[in-house]
Design brief:
Layout: H1 2-10, H2 12-29, H3 46-55, H4 62-73, H5 88-123, H6 128-142, H7 145-159, H8 178-216, H9 219-226, H10 231-243, H11 245-249, H12 251-269, H13 274-284, H14 287-315
Helix pairs in contact: 2-14, 5-6, 5-8, 5-12, 5-14, 6-8, 7-8, 7-12, 8-10, 8-12, 9-10, 12-13, 12-14, 13-14
């Protein structure tokens, strides 16, 4: 197993180089830069503009600018945010925790509902339960995420049951106890997590049902039934472990899907996460923040895929990681 992990880890640096260089090329191809707006101010001299661009290596060629960024990034220095005037690593770390909270909550919601509902639909194949689960999965896959987010904001505004945006109470937060702060953040997380996790839940639900229906028709399941085992033992001890393997392979991709899926949801709900930071940085042409955000998203994708492969090797003894 360790040989397999080492091979996967050695493949990360070339991937990060390719992704970061492509991102840098796209940013360099965009007209202007963050400091172009300063040129509109008559009080700003050309000499000052030239000094700023030279300081942040914005006046060189693509390769020169990329090498200047890479030489510092290798040492853990992702630069200084033009817009927020603070180290990028500190800024990313602050927002990354918020995004992981939202994505993790959505992931728990998606898997926690998809697996039992998918198994139930397979066991009750052809009944109203199966049709209801199928309708829910079809609805979850069909509804646009942005439209769903707007519906949830309207639902929160009309009912008053949930906050319409943000991550915490902007007025009474400083007066809350630790427990009240935890409850407040959880309250703000419910609707964004539902929106982000719905599509994943619908996808896993359909996949779980299909795999379970196929598994229940195999010989070893019929043998278990012939031995007189209880129905729940046949389903959960024999069929479920084999049917869930394909979904484990999707786990790594779900991390990246949740991260990208939270982009517009964070904007709609005003969630102060990495996605909102990246979108704002792209429009503001804050290159150091964009580069660091893309690298962070790539690392999360690679790590998620590695975790998925390791879990699959642990769950299914027929698969050898070596």
């Amino acid at each position: 197993m360790w040989t397999y992990v080492a091979r996967r880890l050695l493949a990360i640096p070339p991937l990060l180089l390719a992704v970061s260089f492509l991102t840098h090329c796209l940013l360099a191809a965009a007209p202007g830069d963050y400091f172009s707006r300063l040129a509109e101010d008559p009080a700003v001299t050309e000499a000052y503009m030239a000094a700023l661009r030279a300081k942040f290596h914005l006046d060189g060629g693509i390769f020169e600018r990329y090498w200047a960024w890479l030489s510092h990034a290798v040492g853990g220095d992702f630069g200084h945010s033009f817009r927020f005037d603070m180290p990028v690593f500190e800024l990313i770390g602050e927002r990354l925790g918020n995004t992981l909270l939202l994505s993790g909550s959505a992931l728990v919601l998606a898997w926690g509902l998809a697996l039992p509902l998918g198994v139930l639909a397979a066991v009750k194949q052809g009944t109203w339960i199966d049709k209801t689960v199928g309708f829910l999965s079809f609805l979850g896959l069909s509804i646009p995420r942005v439209f769903f987010a707007l519906l949830m904001v309207m639902f929160a505004a009309v009912t008053g049951w949930f906050p319409t945006g943000g991550m915490r109470d902007p007025i009474d937060w400083d007066d809350f106890t630790a427990w009240e702060r935890w409850v407040d953040v959880a309250h703000h997380t419910v609707l964004p997590a539902v929106v982000v996790g719905t599509t994943q839940m619908a996808h896993y639900m359909r996949q779980m049902r299909a795999e379970m229906v196929e598994t229940l028709g195999k010989d070893f399941v019929r043998t278990a039934k012939a031995k007189g085992l209880a129905p729940w033992e046949v389903v959960w001890k024999h069929a479920f472990g084999n049917a869930v393997n394909p979904l484990i392979t999707l786990f790594g991709y779900s991390l990246a899907a949740l991260l990208t899926g939270s982009f517009l949801v964070e904007v709609v709900f005003g969630w102060p996460g990495l996605a909102t930071l990246t979108v704002d940085a792209v429009f503001a042409q804050d290159e150091p923040v964009v580069m660091a955000s893309v690298v962070m998203a790539t690392v999360m994708l690679v790590v998620g895929n590695l975790i998925a492969d390791l879990l699959l090797g642990i769950v299914d003894p027929r698969i050898g990681l070596e």
